[in-house]
Write a structure and sequence with these properties.
This protein is of the alpha/beta class and 365 residues long. It has helices at residues 16-27, 63-72, 82-98, 105-124, 167-171, 182-191, 213-221; strands at 7-11, 31-38, 75-80, 129-131, 136-140, 146-150, 173-174, 228-232, 237-241, 264-269, 274-278, 284-295, 305-310, 318-324, 330-339, 346-351, 354-364. β1 (7-11), α1 and β2 (31-38) form a beta-alpha-beta unit. α1 packs across α6.
Amino acid sequence: MAMSKGKVVVGMSGGVDSSVAAYLLKEKGYEVVGVTMRMWDPADLIPKRDAAGNPIPIPEVSADAKRVAEHLGIDFHVLDFRNEFRKKVMDYFVKEYLNGRTPNPCVACNRGIKWEALLKWADSVGADGIATGHYARIEKLSNGRYSLRRAASASKDQTYALYGLTQEQLARTQMPVGEFTKEEIRDMARMAEIPVAEKKDSQEICFIPDKDYAGFIEHVYGKKMDKGNFVSSRGEILGTHKGLLHYTIGQRKGLNLSMGHPVFVGELRPKENEVVIVENEELFKKTVYAERVNFMSVEDLDGEMRAVAKIRYNHKGSPCTLKKKSDGTVICRFDEAQRAITPGQSLVFYDGDYCMGGGIITGGE
């Protein structure tokens, strides 16, 4: 029997990407251990409903992953991270929304739960590292630092949500699907007869399957925000909003304002319980501020540095100049103004294909 390359713990969601990641590593000669992390209770969720209004049962989160592990002939475990997930992700998500910001819970989950908790468990079973089904690549650069490199398939690249990973976490992680397109991954799954080869990708936040953020916060946390005023940037009262939780920067639909032309959400003011309504041109800003910055391909910013930065997951990225203030805040000045800069989202900056780092957006001007 060939000698094992080492022991690796693969985070398995039950989807095709993480399943193929486990398959590829086994094929390379690793001793693979599959793990599904239990993050939330079905009772915490507002169930999806069918056309008749009946709740659609939520499948057991580990069922598909277990089937795949059995098919691949690897050990499989379900780990309970519900307490950690509630504290570090769900509580954070709710707090940010109540403070008028629009958070990205996947960013908090990746570093604080998936990597931190999974590496800790991997150590307990004597594994060398972990692996995931993310579309990204990890490389050690000539300066000695580890960095994320954009996935070979640009349309599936997930580096934006992974910018918070530490150097230690990157050093002990593999992302085998990052070298392939989604079509190639599905073809491999079919060839290996993996049971979830045709399973659709999940698009929503895992603990809010119906995308009703306000409903979730009211249902699970008992927080209901009061109605307040829509106001213009000059302070004129334009109408009544149904609670800040229902709005985000740049939103046009669902405002129910008769202005005679399209208008947009420009700012949320939790202290005043106001939603500021603006014209489209008022949404464009050149300067973005970010805090809680994690550096990846560079140890720190050296004076002013050029980069390409993204202000949301599906933003294509735009050229900019970066500079760090003495308090650690990063100032990003785009060459061209960007639309709907949203506090709570992440600013992630790149040098070519390599992620330099990122932080949480606090505002812009």
